[in-house]
Amino acid sequence: MMYLIRSGCQWRLLPPCHHHWKSVYNKWRYWNATGLFDKTHSALLRHARTRAGRNESPTVGFIDSASRRSGLSDSAKGVDGFKKIKGIKRHIVVDSQGNILYVLTTCVNVNDGKACLEVIPRVSRKYPGLKKIRADKGYRGQDVADMAEENGLALVFTKSIGCRVPSE
Question: What is the pLDDT of residues 19-33, one digit of tens each?
Answer without folding.
Answer: 888 998 898 889 889
